[in-house]
Amino acid sequence: SKRYNITLLPGDGIGPEVVSVAKNVLTLAGSQQGIEFEFREMPMGGAALDLVGVPLPDETLSVAKQSDAILLGAIGGYKWDNNEKQLKPETGLLQLRAGLGVFANLRPATVLPQLVDSSTLKKEVAEGVDLMVVRELTGGIYFGQPRGFGKNEKGEEIGFNTEVYATYEIDRIARVAFETARKRRGKLCSVDKANVLEASMLWRKRVTMMASHYPDIELTHMYVDNAAMQLIRDPKQFDTIVTNNIFGDILSDEASMLTGSIGMLPSASLGESGPGLFEPIHGSAPDIAGQDKANPLATVLSVAMLLRYGLQEENAARTIENAVLETLNQGFRTGDIFSTGKKLVGCKEIGEAVMKSV
Amino acid sequence: SKRYNITLLPGDGIGPEVVSVAKNVLTLAGSQQGIEFEFREMPMGGAALDLVGVPLPDETLSVAKQSDAILLGAIGGYKWDNNEKQLKPETGLLQLRAGLGVFANLRPATVLPQLVDSSTLKKEVAEGVDLMVVRELTGGIYFGQPRGFGKNEKGEEIGFNTEVYATYEIDRIARVAFETARKRRGKLCSVDKANVLEASMLWRKRVTMMASHYPDIELTHMYVDNAAMQLIRDPKQFDTIVTNNIFGDILSDEASMLTGSIGMLPSASLGESGPGLFEPIHGSAPDIAGQDKANPLATVLSVAMLLRYGLQEENAARTIENAVLETLNQGFRTGDIFSTGKKLVGCKEIGEAVMKSV
Ligand SMILES: CC(C)[C@H](C(=O)O)[C@@H](O)C(=O)O
Ligand SMILES: CC(C)[C@H](C(=O)O)[C@@H](O)C(=O)O
Asked: Which residue is catalytic, options A165, A249, A309, A336?
C-alpha cells in the first residue's frame, strides 16, 4: 500500500477545527484506495509566534519541505495585527511560499448549483460560473528588491516597493496556466497593466511567446481594471485567468466572492518540484474560532486538490469532491451558506456527514 | 455676467459625440445662471497622434493649464494599441494628469433607482449603493522611478516598476478624502496592502495621523483583496474609499461595474490649484463610434462635476443632475441602459431630452 507524509499546519483561529475535519476525510478517502498517510503537525503563523517567537520556525519549514504535501488551515488574528513586519503571521506565510518555491497558485471559483443563491449576483449571472485563477505567487511586488523606507530628494519620508518579473518567472507561470487551460475549456486570459507598467509589458510579451507552444489554447489579454469589471459583468466569459502576484491577490478574492460562498473554496500552490501547499482561501475568522461554527468544506476540498495536484491520486480526489456535493444535496449547511429549508449544522457535524458519503 | 474658459479634449472613438452633447448642456445650464463659457477644442490621444505625432501636444497642455476647467471625452482605440509606449494614447493621458498636477481623482459609483435593474447584482444588494472612490492619480507605480527593462544577476531580462509614496503625497490625498467624506456620510475607508508592502505601511500610518484633524469622520482600513470582495458582498457598507493609484484604478472600475451602467458615471481629477480635469469613466468604445449610439450622460454628469468641483457653481451642477434624472424618469434610454418598456434613443436625442429638462 502507498504511504505519504503530510505536514499539517493548522495555524490560527478556525484553522485547527477545519484541518482536523479535513484530516479525517483525507484518511478515510485514502484508506479506501489503499493509501496511508503519516501526519506531522507543526506550528505556523500566530500559533508559532506565541510558541517560539517567529511566524515560520525553521523546523516547520524543513519538515514541510521533506513531506509529500502540506495542508494549511489559516493564519492571523487581531492579537498579532499590530506586530512589526517580521513578526506578522502573514510574513510567515510569505516565507513558507518562498521557502517551498510554490510559484503557481491555483484558485478555482465555482458556483455550485446547490449554492447559487449564496451569490450576491443575479442567478442568471452566477449560475454556471467555473473559472480558475492562476496567480504567480513567489515574485512581483511581494518580494521585489529594493523595498523599504527612505527619503526622497526633498528629504521627505518615502515607502517603496519594486514590482519586478524576470522572463523565467513569467515563462514558468505561463506554462502552468496554459497546461491548466488545456485540462479545462481551453481558454486562457492573461491579465496585466501593459498600457502603463514595464513589468506588465514584459509579462504580455512572454505569455504571447509561450502561446506558440499551445496552438490549441485560445489566449486573450485584458487590462486588470477591465478584468475587475468583466468579472462582475459576465463572469462566465472566463475559463482560466493568469496574472501576477498582486493582481492575482485582488482578482482571485473578487472572483471567489462572486460565488458568495468563500467557505467552500480551496487552493493549491505548486512549485517546479517538491511538495505543494494546499489551503482554503478563507481567513482565520477569529470571531467564530473554537465555537464549532466554521465551514470546513473549503479545507476538505483543499485535500481533494492535495490528492489531485500534490499526489496524483485522482480517484481519491474525486471521491472527496463527490462526498462534498452529496453532503450539500442532503441539505447540510454551516451558517455561512445556510438558507431556509436546509439543515443548519456545525463544523464537526458537516464533517461527519461528508465522512458518511466518502 | 461670469465667464469661464473651458478646454475641450474630445479625443477618440465616441469622445467627440459625447463631448458635443455635454458642451451644449453646459452652455444652456450656464446661461440660465448668467454664466458664459468660452470653449477651446484641442487635440489629444489618438487624434493628436494622427495629427501631430504625439499623444499630448505641448500646445494642448498649455492651453489646458491656462483654462478654468478641462472636459475630456475618451482616448484610445485599436489603431494605436500596438504603438510603443511613448506613442500610446494612454501615455498622453498620464502626461496630462501629471502636467496638470491633478493628484485627486474622484469617482462616484451610484446606483440610480431608475437603473437598478442594469446591475448584475441582486436588486436588494445594488439598490441604494452610493459610494465615492478617491484615487491618488499622479504618484505610485504609475510614475515611480526607477522603471524599465534590464537584466538580473543571472543575465535574464527583467521588467520593473517602483511603487513609491512620499508623506506629502499621502497627506494631500488623505485630506481630500477626509473632506469628501465630510460632505457625504462621514465614513472613510482607506484601502492598502499594509500587511505586505512598505509603501502601504507608510500610507496607513499617514492616513491614520491625518484622522486626528477629522474627529467627526469614522476612519477604517481595509486590505485591497478584502475590499475587492466586500464591494461585491455588501457595497452599501462603503461611503468614501481612499486608495493609491493602481488599487484605485482596479477598485473604481470594479465599483463602477456594480452599478451596471458605466455609461452613466462621471469623474473629476483635481489638483492643489489650477484647473481640474473632468471625464466620463468609460472608454472610447471604437466599435460604436460615429454611429450616434453612445450614451452621453456620463459626460453630461462630468460637466456637472466640472461646475461643482471645478468652478464652484453648485446651482448649475444641480440643474444638470436633475435634468439627467428627469430624462431617465421620462423613459429615455440609450442602448447600454435600455430595458423593455423604455424609449430607445441615440446619443443626440437623449442629449436633446436633457436640454429640454435643463
Ligand atoms: C495574508 C496575505 C499575505 C495573503 C496574500 O496577500 O498573498 C492572502 O491575502 C492570500 O491571498 O493568500
Ligand atoms: C487608460 C489608463 C492609463 C487609465 C489608468 O490606468 O489610469 C484608465 O484605466 C483610467 O482609469 O483612467
From this structure: A249
